[in-house]
Automatic annotation (TrEMBL):
Residues 247-258 have a biased composition (Basic and acidic residues). Residues 168-212, 247-270 are annotated as: Disordered. Residues 172-181 have a biased composition (Low complexity). Signal peptide: none annotated. It comes from the Bacteria. The lineage of its organism: Bacteria, Bacillati, Bacillota, Bacilli, Lactobacillales. This is Lipoprotein. Coiled coil: none annotated. Residues 182-194 have a biased composition (Polar residues).
Length: 335
């Protein structure tokens, strides 16, 4: 008779163990479901930049000629943004505008890559008055290019709920001192490294075709950036004109060529007629280094197109891996 209680005790223990196992399984399934739901709800999405730009306006901040960025507008920065806009910020009562760029990313990895690029640019180019503000949660980055006050930059950062990089303004004071010292002399290509990048661009805009003889790649690059940012171009003789004038000249040239062709003349059209075509020719010739290089066109002049490949892992300030001229006849001249 003593065996009966023992059997009942063992049965109860087994039953309790089974119930406990079922509850653990249910708990595990519930936890897995919650994690799956949480993971799904945390799926990264991009922020609507139009709303941020509209908020700038609502907060009384300048947004001059906002437009979606093209490949050329990215400059040398990593082109990993899902969406990006470029616009002008009014520096002060003088009405002078400085460029600003705002990016939206699909993931924080791409945001961090671009942030590192602009942070490094701000340090390596005598600060170049390059300021970076980000928000990891919304995956938004804003880059300010120009001699702007900390107070003004902070207003834009606050409006977009962005946090400025701590080192931005620590470097800007030293760059301001550098700007003062370099203004006391007239920079030449021999001491261009003493200039800030912004000063270099301004100097190149005052150049003549004769001044450009013997220019370094850095000077040509700054010149191309300055032309693009200010809506300028060069005529066939190398003189600076507005982009509208350039377009008009190009339109007249094409009409003349078409007229010559219809009359049996020798006004044959160019072999290379667009930036995209020039970039493709350069990439076909030199490759992309296993995907590490990104090719882009900086500007067009009377010779053809200045095309370069950038590598974010390159140690130079501009991350230039290769730069060439793709001539209108399809030939390539290396720099």
């Amino acid at each position: 008779m003593k065996k009966l209680p023992i059997i009942l005790l063992v049965s109860s223990a087994l039953l309790f163990s089974a119930c406990s196992t079922d509850k653990k399984a249910e708990s595990s399934d519930s936890t897995r479901t919650k994690l799956t739901t949480s993971s799904s709800s945390q799926k990264e999405t991009t922020t609507d930049l139009n709303k941020i730009i509209e908020k700038f306006k609502k907060d009384g901040l300048t947004v001059d000629a906002s437009k979606a960025m093209t490949k050329e507008d990215f400059g040398m920065a990593p082109m990993s943004a899902k969406e990006a806009f470029i616009f002008g910020i009014q520096k002060d009562d003088s009405g002078e505008n400085m460029n600003a760029r705002i990016f939206s990313f699909e993931n924080t990895k791409d945001l961090d890559t671009t942030k590192s690029y602009y942070d490094e640019l701000g340090k390596s180019s005598a600060a170049a008055f390059s300021y970076t503000a980000t928000n990891d949660k919304t995956k938004v980055l804003m880059q300010f290019n120009g001699d702007l006050s900390q107070e003004l930059v902070q207003k834009y950062a606050d409006s977009a709920d962005l946090k400025l990089t701590d080192s931005n303004f620590a470097g800007s004071s030293s760059s301001s001192e550098s700007a003062v010292s370099t203004e006391q002399t007239t920079p030449t290509s021999g001491n261009a490294q003493e200039e800030t990048y912004e000063q270099l661009k301004q100097r190149t805009l005052k150049s003549t075709p004769t001044n450009r003889v013997g220019w370094s790649n850095k000077e040509w690059e700054a010149f191309g950036m300055a032309l693009s940012e200010n809506g300028l171009a060069m005529d066939d003789n190398g003189y600076i004109i507005t982009q509208a004038q350039k377009d008009q000249l190009e339109s007249e040239r094409q009409k003349n060529e078409q007229s010559n062709e219809s009359q049996g003349g020798h006004g044959a059209p160019k072999v290379v007629t667009s930036e995209a075509q020039a970039v493709q020719i350069a990439q076909n010739q030199y490759g992309d280094n296993g995907g590490a290089w990104t090719w882009g066109c900086l500007y067009e002049d009377e010779r053809g197109y200045f095309v370069k490949a950038t590598d974010p892992n390159d140690g130079t300030m501009t991350h230039t891996a290769k730069s060439v001229f793709v001539n209108y006849d399809g030939s390539i001249t290396e720099n």
